[in-house]
Predict the structure.
Amino acid sequence: MEETIDIVVIGGGPAGLSAAISARESGIESIVIIERDVVLGGILNQCVHCGFGLHNFGEELSGPEYAARYVDRVAELGISCELDTMVLEISKDRVVTMVSPDKGLRRLKAGAIILAMGCRERPRGALNIPGFRPAGIYTAGTAQRLINLEGYLPGRDAVILGSGDIGLITARRMALEGAKVRLVAELQSYPGGLRRNIVQCLEDFNIPLLLSHTVVNVHGHDRVEGVTLAEVDENLKPIPGTEQYVPCDTLLLSVGLLPENEISRGAGVALNPATGGPFVNSDFSTNIEGIFACGNVLHVHDLVDRVSQEAAQAGSAAADYVKSGKRMSVNAITIKAGPGIRYTVPSYIQKEMLPEKVLIRFRVTMRRRDVYICGLFDGKEAVRRKRPIVSPGEMEELVLEGAELENVNEVTIFVED
Amino acid sequence: MERELICTVCPLGCQMKAVLVNGRVKSVSGNSCRRGVVYARNELVAPRRMVTCAVPARNGKLPMGSLKTARDVPKEKIFDVIKAMKAACLIAPVTLGEVVIEDVADTGVPVVSTKAVPAMG
């Protein structure tokens, strides 16, 4: 006999915390946050550097400080949490199966589920880098966890593949901890992370950035002894003859984040191949009734401030669903990603009770300057916004007026010069 | 003397050129707004950075606590600050915001805890 909970939040990181708080503030009493780690806070716990909260709090906080704002509020509201508890599966009819060392295997029946599991790093195996399996190869986030949460230095002489923010931040952290950081290699011809991090993580420490380069071989049997780098062409294929050997004892990989939707798939949640996360409506509901998604499990964000905002919306939407029993997602306006747009979240806008304003978040396919972000409503131009610069690495936002969406069936967003 | 730099204030990342005379920024070009000028002035003459790190917490429920400088410090002092942070002895319970070092490496800036670490048991 399962216990029934009104709202089950899977994940106690920034998204889950914000969603749970919002649901409680919307009047739902019966809420539980299920978190697999022994503490709440998610990835923020290992992000000891500053740069969080500028939008939401007007302050530049470190990860743990930002997390504490939400963890403290959860405690203040008395929201139940199951720590050290792993959700194994969720069913279409919202039965959550979870396991923990002290309570064993349990099931909960949820009025609504909010998916807030975050994302995983793409591992070495997925890259097909040749070589043995020597010790000393880690994803950048794993290295960050080892250093900042467990007190270990993963290596003393590192090469980093990938210039996304995680790679850059970890390059700085290794350097500050006394390791030699030889270089950061980046497959693309442009850096992946924020300009600020290029300056403060690489330039400050004289760490070279090799654009259009990748790792083509790893040397060493028991421990990494070096890597072979090669330049890549415009098709991102290694150019023969450009190989160079770089001795090192550690290779850190920062080559992509993947929303973690294993259990979502199990419940039949439809996933968008462009994001790796669920297709959602403007109320963050998925195709499965009563299942909502927010944060990095929905699409990988750049700023935690936006995660918190998005999750708060998902939390109150889940609360509305539980209170009313009414499902919004069935009759919906479709949002299409037109030329220049890689994806939009949401993919649909509810037709019933159109919100006053609909916020669409999206990413562009290429870095471009002086463009217009345009919106067509059933083929007719309705929105045109100027943007001096857009980049795939910076999530963009577009606000649509609900009033203008009456009787519209399809919205297309695209980029124009 | 002319120096090139990329502004980090906003996502535009303006490529700027600054002219320095006697160690002071005389003019800035390539910026799209006033904030770029301020950025160039600070960055080229007296760059400052926030410094953060994780340090062991004795007797804590967590093995590591984390620290930050309460404000930014001169960039050239980053490693001195890290050394001082690493030498600080954190003993749980540690509260968030607790001052761990009053004045780190003669910068006049305190170091504070950014994570609460409850004591063991």
